[in-house]
Every structure is written in C-alpha cells, then in structure tokens.
Please model this.
Amino acid sequence: MIQRARSLLGSSRTSISKPSADEADAPADDAPSSPAVVFGFRKGQKGPVYGDESLMRPRAHGTSDTPVQPTLRWGCDVKQADKICNFNRHYAERARYFMSTSFMRDLHRAEREGEKTLTFFDSNTGQPLFSAPRFRSYEKFWAESKAHGWPSFRDEEVNWDRVRLLANRECVSIDGTHLGHNLPDRYGNRYCINLVSVAGFPK
Model:
C-alpha cells in the first residue's frame, strides 16, 4: 500500500490514534462479515474509472482552468483549498481538519431531516463528485471518516462520470482538481478525500 499523502503542515501527516472498536473500518451495512472480494471489490460492486496523467496537465490556474470558489461550504479555508486543489499532487489537509468546520453539524442535519445522502461538489467547478452515505448509515460514514482522518468514500459513493483514479492511486476530477487518494482496506477501495476539495457550492 502506498504511504498516505503528506500534510501541508509538515513533511508527514499527523499520526492518527488507533480508532476505538466502534469506529474502526466501518463497512457498508450490506457487507458480509467475510466479504467475497474480486480484485479488491465486493461482488457486484461498481469499480473505479481510471484516468491518465493528462487530466492533471498544467492549465490556466495550476491543474485547473479556474481557482476555487470565493466562498466554500462548511467554512473551509479558501486559500488552503486553492493550494490543495490546484497546485498539489501529494499533500493533504491535516488529519481530522473537517472536525474544525461545520461539516459534522451539516451531516447531522441531513440525517435528522431525512435526506438520504449528502452531495459533495468540486470546490473549483461546483460539479457533483461524491454522494454519501450509500448502502450504509450516516453513522457508519461518519465513524469511518473520523477513524481515518478524512472523509472516506466507497466506490458506490463516487460519481464516476466526473471522478477518475490515476495509476498512483491519486483521486482527481476530470477538471483537474486534486481530491485525495485511494487507500484500500479489507472491504475494498476507500477514497480518503480532502474536505476542502469537495466543499464547493453547486452550479
């Protein structure tokens, strides 16, 4: 497994304490205790769509045609978002950065109001990239994200019309936005995504 992406705040990511038993590797609700895995996926699960390095070619603004939106959801830092999204291939926001934002409050609101999923939009373009939770509860999505330090999505929660996985396991949008990395576990692919990369408002 590749090493986790390094933090913008230092040469290596802040270490994550070992999650408690109720937080660790929360699988989808329909995942069997001993999942049948084929090439890293559960049977019947839609796999990733791969892209090549041309997606991250130099453009007008780093790897994108435009900077991040002037205001981002959940109070995310615009300057940090622009650096991570458009001038970066390896670094990440600090572990559990999302817990310093209003993201958790919005997640609880969505669950309380009966929204089936919460949609995450590209911080540059406002295009939909992820929708979670799918085939699991809000509680399990939150527990897994908290345990690993970054919003953590599964294959079925990715909009593969607009997201691509590169050979180095970097996860990017088709518009050149750096999103995060694929860090698989025993349940399959797990996309650890920077909240600042998916905090855009829809367009």
Remarks:
- Residues 15 and 68 are 28 Å apart (CA to CA).
- Confidence is low (pLDDT under 50) at residues 1-42.
- The longest strand covers residues 128-132.
- Residues 138-148 form the longest helix (11 residues).
